[in-house]
Amino acid sequence: MGKALIIGAGGVASVVAHKCCQVPDVFEEICIASRTLSKCEAIKDKIDGGKTKVSVAQVDADNTQEVIELINSFNPEIVINVALPYQDLTIMDACLATGVHYLDTANYEPPETAKFEYKWQWEYKQKFEEAGLTALLGSGFDPGVTGVFTAYAQKHHFDEINYIDIVDANGGDHGYPFATNFNPEINIREITANGRYWEKGKWVETPPLSEKREYDLDQIGPKNIYLLYHEELESLAVNIKGLKRIRFWMTFSDNYLNHLKVLENVGMTSIEPINYEGKEIIPLQFLKEILPDPASLGPRTKGKTNIGCIIQGTKDGKPKTYYVYNICDHQECYREVGSQAISYTTGVPAMIGAMLIMKGQWKRPGVYNVEEFDPDPFMDALNKYGLPWQENFSPTLID
Ligand code: NDP
């Protein structure tokens, strides 16, 4: 059917590339392009030899002109942006300049302020409409599948959704005293920020990790979950009519939080530049360099993730509750694509989103979040491509 350009060569990009190769009738050709060419070549070495033709390229995606030149030479239908959130706008600009569809898994964040919001990317709506191009934002797991789960619940189970609690649990153990499951810089910026949830039309802020509950998760067991701000809250609060409250919860072990507290207390999570031996460095970026590479956790991680949406609302005038979730096994992911479940649960939905755009099922000019499209083909593809989902019609609710 066509060609896809994958930008980034980290843990998520590797899964996207593996998964595209499993659907060669859609992805006839892929190019993996990133800052460090050797990382692209390492992915190519693992997946080459099948029906999908694989090439690699070096690109600095902070530079729109470089991305434009790469797109013009490879000529893809879509760019799958699985680099870092800082590159979202430069890549969107390059897509507009070259007439190519766009997809990402994380919303834009200016490097100098730890503040992620959709506003910068939503401002591109008119430009993508006028160009006749689709930009699909946040097609990972959360954001991504959580939005598709919500749209599916809205379509098939509710007349009106009033409350959503998204629960992201990782019961995996990699055996290191401290490591993050995806890019450490992005991950730590997210967790050390204030918590925030949306209620009755307003955002309510909470000090970082101050709201805690215990929740018993299928196949994982009871875990402490903490309220965090997460980017899909912003789009779902706009797109789900009748919503009264939406919150996001994530599990962290006491060990993880103790390490994080110490790192924070000594200033290692700061994004303020400091001068070290005549060179300006950012402590959090230095910390990233000494922490284990998330892509290296694959062979070591055992256990499962469980991510889903607990939804309350009404159907036919009666109150209804519904919980839809996916359970993913770290070791099974590693056996299939050589990555742990965090990269897997992000990379599979990115491939699915790109596939639906290329097949025309999710092609609509403009800038969209996943919940704005028909969830059914995405839900079918989740079952088919490694992220089957389960339903519970009487879940325990979170107070
Ligand atoms: P990694 O850090 O493993 O990989 C990022 C890749 O992007 C690296 O290969 C890096 O290159 C490359 N890159 C960074 N800057 C540039 C640049 N200027 N030009 C070209 N390439 C660049 O991250 P992950 O794979 O773990 O995560 C990828 C994305 O997925 C992130 O945006 C993350 O926020 C998002 N994510 C989304 C989730 C979801 O559920 N929606 C969950 C997890 C992650 P180099 O190797 O040279 O540094």
TrEMBL record:
Domain Saccharopine dehydrogenase-like C-terminal: 140-387
Database matches in SUPFAM superfamilies: NAD(P)-binding Rossmann-fold domains
Pfam families registered for this protein in UniProt: Sacchrp_dh_C, Sacchrp_dh_NADP
Domain Saccharopine dehydrogenase NADP binding: residue ranges: 5-136
PANTHER family from the UniProt entry: CARBOXYNORSPERMIDINE SYNTHASE
Protein known as: Saccharopine dehydrogenase family protein
Lineage summary: Bacteria, Bacillati, Bacillota, Bacilli, Bacillales
